[in-house]
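To make the argument concrete, we let one protein speak, a sequence paired with a row of structure tokens, as a model reads it:
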Amino acid sequence: MTSMSDVAKAAGVSAATVSRALRGEPGVSEATREHVAEVAKRMRYAIARDASSLAGGRRYAVAVLTADVGRGDLLAGAEAALREAGYDVLLYVLNDAAARARFFEQVPTGRRVDGVLALAIRPTEAERAALDGAGVPVVLVEDGDLGEAVALAARHLIGHGHREVALVLAEDVDESLDEVLAAEGLVVRPEWTVWSSPTVAGGEQVVDALLDGGTLPTAVISSSGEVALGVFLRLRRDGREVPSDVSVVSLEGAELARAVGITAVEGAWRERGEHATAALLTALRGHDVHPHAEAIAPPSAQLVVRGSSGPALRSSANPPTAAP
């Protein structure tokens, strides 16, 4: 069985340095910490979470909160970075009001974890106060870039002659995003702002909801990649051409949406998760980091144009007719 001394010898450092590096304690340079972690991983050595470590106040576990498991790249980036640093992950999925209320009423984090990562979640003032009371560092990655993503998608569609665009939002997304469309000069109709469950089936139902409004817009922007895929598939199944009849743009680059060629705004979500983890680990190592500091500025979102969007060849006043 590999011992700490074995790792120290292989890494060319002292056993005390190995202990500090793998426990995330101060007094070790980042380069040395990464070197020791790599050697320990290669030798399949894991430092024991024994009674002495717990007595010192460390649990080597982090609570990860998310309201949107659809942000798979964001979650994967955070989880991989935490496990690389030797931390276990306690995942709390707060995707409905009841689960969210239960968590923030009890906030079990302070008794079980060393810190909290809140990913793609926007806490209320009361929820922030509850997290403050947990007594551990907290890093937030708020889903605050959706407005930028909507504007990118809108400008792309306007450049192709679209003026009549529907906005499809996941159930917990702020409806005020339709104001971004109006600010960009697009026609905004109440019946063209539609909510959907973040699933392919939900996207298929969106097409029915849009048709119930009497007119079909020339383009659809969806906050969810799965919903965008559902819209795309339903339109094709009904005999409508994408993008000739209706263009489809997603505000996230879900893997399935990429596979069928859906234009999407992509924002390097995995890197955001990694950067958020780096900020939290810095706080855990005793540096002066505000408990609610956001992660290091993420890469800017970018529009990746694929085959689902193109020129507007008609007006919604002349909606396409489904093939018989």
